[in-house]
Amino acid sequence: MLHIVIIGAGECGARAAFALREKGFDGQITLVGAEEHLPYERPPLSKEALLHGLEPKLVSDAARYADAGIAVLTGLSVESIDPAGKTVQLSNGDSLPYDRLLLTMGARPRPFPGLSGTIHRIRTLRTHDDTVAIRAGLQPGKHLAIIGGGFIGLELAATARKLGAQVTLLEGLPRILSRGVPDEIAGVVAARHQAEGVEILCGVKIQSLEESRDEVKVHFEDGRTMAADLIVVGIGAIPNVELARDAGLTIDNGIAVDEHLQTSVPDIFAAGDCCSFPLAHYDGRRLRLEAWRNAQDQGALAAANLLGAGEAMSALPWFWSDQYDLTLQIAGLADGATQTIRRDTADGAFILFHLDAGGRLIAASGIGTGNAIARDIRLAEMMIAAGVRPDPVALAAAQTKLKSLLAA
Ligand SMILES: Cc1cc2nc3c(=O)[nH]c(=O)nc-3n(C[C@H](O)[C@H](O)[C@H](O)COP(=O)(O)OP(=O)(O)OC[C@H]3O[C@@H](n4cnc5c(N)ncnc54)[C@H](O)[C@@H]3O)c2cc1C
Prior knowledge:
The chain is an alpha/beta fold. It contains 11 helices and 26 strands. The strands form 7 sheets. Strands 3-2-1-7-19 form a 5-stranded parallel sheet. A 5-stranded parallel sheet has the order 9-16-10-11-12, covered by helices on one side. Helix 1 packs parallel to helix 8. The site of flavin-adenine dinucleotide (FAD) has 36 residues, from helix 1, helix 8 and strand 22.
């Protein structure tokens, strides 16, 4: 019986395992995960799970894995892959033979430079256990310093304010969200955080962090210091590629895969946060995404291709973030844009449409309360996928139905 082993029991690995069954695979499936929990959703970790102290939101419960005949080995790491012998070595000493292998090992938080040893008051946020530890330090009045003005830091800031903590956010660059988020949207986010009482300090240069029994200190390069009860470092993520690299697979800002999610070694595929892939819609440009829907899409695509479908990756990048009652969404890649058209919708919500030099819509980003922008971003995504060159004047006018521009 054919055996497919999936390394990494997160969003992507779990999705792939079920997709294999949905596509009719009746061989053996083993999903190996280093964490103690069954696969769970990470987006709530900085939002409602942190706010309410919830248990992990499982992708599926144990009964569904059992019904589908998916063996989930939790609390076990794969320590090495032998592509020639087609086996993986587990941390409990066992080795597991495979016919085909899928790597969905995700990413881990980038540590603050130079930090090592046992650290209690300086944390990162990636796992359920991180959320539990951070929540324990967020009582009302406690001072949280967040290093990094990216999505995770900002979502954490919003939740920490709801929990009554005093929050200072430290960003080294001149503004928050400088990676892939337009200025106008970052400005709205920053203003809202400040209105909620978050102190945002941009352009700061941190020299070192120092932990003592009762507090933690940030030492700035200009000689100033700041004390806090807890520091959370949110300065990006590093793809988990070491296993693949040691097994001789090509690495290029992640485990390099082709448009079918196939690695440089036969019968080994990779998907989700750990891989970089070429995206045909953007001239085959290679990118690595850290986004929930991408993990799902690639999990399903990898399953199809493990079974020989030969389907190419076509989904567009899409990401959302919730902070307070604001939702921000980004579809496509805006960095090749030469023109941006703003469309104001109801209640202060707006969408920015990004067009390339030829007038083609290549990305859309928006912000508003609740799901104010959701439908328009969905339509924008369809327009991007269809390669539409919309009339900028019509695009800017809220009364123009985007559907009509899609049809045109
Ligand atoms: C706090 C937080 C909030 C987020 N919010 C959003 C959001 O609002 N919107 C959005 O679009 N995206 C969001 N994301 C991103 C999204 O959750 C990720 O893109 C998604 O989880 C990636 O799934 P994955 O399966 O590729 O990797 P992961 O979820 O990281 O899963 C990989 C798993 O593999 C395991 N593993 C690694 N190495 C080994 C090994 N050698 N052996 C066994 N197991 C191993 C890891 O322990 C991990 O459990 C958020 C992420 C975080 C951390």
